[in-house]
Amino acid sequence: MSRHIPFLFGRILGVSLAITFLFFVTTSTLRAQDKTQEPSKLANIDDATKKAAIEQVRVFFDLCRSGKTDEMYSQFNDELKKVIDPPVFSVFCRAMGSHLGKLESINEPVFLAMDEPKAFTLLTEVLFEKGLAQPSFAFESGKITGFNINSADFDQWFSGIDDIQFYKTKTEKFIDLFLKGDADEVRKLCHPALQENIANGRLEAMIENVTEPLGDVRSVSFVRPLQEINSDYEELYLYYTIDGSLGPTNVCMTYRFVGMRGHLIGFRFE
Length: 270
What we know:
Number of strands: 15
Helix content: 25-40%
CATH topology of the largest domain: Nuclear Transport Factor 2, Chain: A
Oligomer: single chain
Distance between the termini: 30 Å
CATH class of the largest domain: Alpha Beta
Shape: elongated
Radius of gyration: 22 Å
Number of domains: 2
Strand content: 25-35%
Number of helices: 9
Order of helices and strands: EEEEHEHHHHEEEEEEHHHHEEEE
CATH architecture of the largest domain: Roll
């Protein structure tokens, strides 16, 4: 997955406006699997809790291999669900099943304590039909709060998403809020670094410069997607056309994939 997020610049209706930015994101800040604390000592938990956690790990791998990601989500706590996009998780599960195959055995795990009550991390080694993995799972109150799958047989798993509907829905919500002039809600859909770059009235100015020459909105149409995957980054571009009473406007939204999320890092109206 990508480690850095450079650019976007925009030219809106002939006026150069503020979507130019440069910022960097590290794996530790954005990867869903890493959003847990470092455990420090052996956890003092009962055998029933240990047994239940091991079974959850087994179910996790079985559901991933079978592609039942909706059932897998039921094991996650609400915070973890927020940082995992379903279409990305589907790619992860499919790739893991392809690279590692069926689960064969789980070695005796180590349970390490964390700061929160009822929270612990399970560390183990898992044998699959095609290789080995050293997973770690964080638990709290019976829910998975984070996970990480380390394996020499399963590394570069992201190859683009098959179903873009999740990001189309987000984009169409963004466009609708933008055209209504709801700058606060628009910002909430953006990556924090982009939020900073459209603060202090800059987004409001963009909205005014786009909506006034557009006139009354007649329709918003999806044009095409474009995915770009290389050694530096993985991005999805979604192109739309807005038909206004005073003329059309083209829109491009840019999502960059880091960890298990597609982050909205840029948008362009022209």
